[in-house]
Design goal:
alpha/beta; seven-stranded mixed beta sheet; two-stranded antiparallel ribbon; 10 helices
């Protein structure tokens, strides 16, 4: 099956999800009204529908790549800013890649793994088959999956940093971790503070990286310059979150607007939620 056919089948799944999943469709439109109140309703509906199609296309691409290797990844994913990251790692400094569920985020780990070692920090998904699919794809191209909260995970994570290797984390979702309330598209969102704390305490270079789906069906993995983190965990976490938001604003059609990012509002006197 050609790459384009897999994408076309995936888009059909996304189209079905948009039509049949009334709850997720409504949530996506509500979130877009929060993020882009200035846009006409018809434009927000276009973005929401496109995000469903992007998610379906991502599934089709992942399934297609399950029987391919790094050569196939290289054919469909171009990189930008990769040399600067390689030079940074050559100094022996560990790197933390931060990204969000943008474009086909699974291709990011695959693209980097085909060049150098990376450990991807993952949360255990509620659906075991989906979790096995995600972990299987990430490790297929050489990445190491480290399940957050697993026995010995913290020790293994520190070992990665001591070896000067790379970690990768998705930091754009509401998860059950230590966190703080940080504005995301102008609305308080519970945000993990661990990545910022880790980077500051261990002198880790924080490199934002995003996958962007291009009009011709290919992808661009953009490695941005390392962030200059402020000397405060909360402010550092806010900077990392703003970086994610800035990319989403560039290509809003490629983010998962159906995700419960603003799962619950903070109490007036709450600055952090329970783990």
């Amino acid at each position: 099956m050609p790459w384009s056919t897999a994408q076309r089948i995936g888009r059909s799944f996304g189209r079905i999800a948009w039509t049949s999943s009334r709850r997720d469709r409504r949530r996506a439109l509500e979130h877009l009204a929060v993020a882009f109140p200035e846009l006409p309703a018809v434009e927000r509906q276009r973005i929401a529908r496109a995000s469903f199609l992007n998610l379906g296309t991502t599934l089709g691409e992942v399934l297609w790549l399950f029987t391919r290797g790094c050569a196939a990844v290289a054919r469909h994913v171009a990189t930008e800013g990769l040399d600067a990251v390689v030079a940074l790692q050559a100094t022996g400094r560990p790197v933390l890649f931060i990204t969000g569920h943008c474009g086909n985020w699974e291709l990011l780990a695959a693209s980097w793994s085909c060049h150098r070692p990376v450990t991807v920090v993952v949360r255990v998904l509620e659906e075991p088959p989906l979790h096995r699919l995600a972990v299987g794809f990430r490790t297929r191209f050489g990445a190491r999956a480290l399940e957050r909260g697993a026995p010995g995970a913290a020790r293994e994570l520190l070992g990665v940093l001591r070896r000067g290797e790379a970690l990768a984390m998705l930091i754009d979702q509401h998860t059950r971790v230590d966190g703080v309330w940080i504005p995301f598209f102008g609305r308080p969102a519970f945000t993990a503070v661990g990545p910022a704390r880790l980077a500051r305490r261990h002198d880790v270079a924080v490199v934002p990286v995003f996958d962007e789906r291009l009009a011709d069906g290919s992808h661009l993995a953009r490695f941005e310059p390392a962030l200059e983190l402020p000397d405060d965990d909360v402010e550092a976490a806010a900077l990392m979150s703003r970086t994610i938001e800035a990319h989403i604003r560039r290509v809003p059609e490629q983010w998962v607007w159906m995700h419960k990012r603003w799962r619950r509002p903070p109490a007036p006197d709450v600055t952090a939620a329970e783990a």
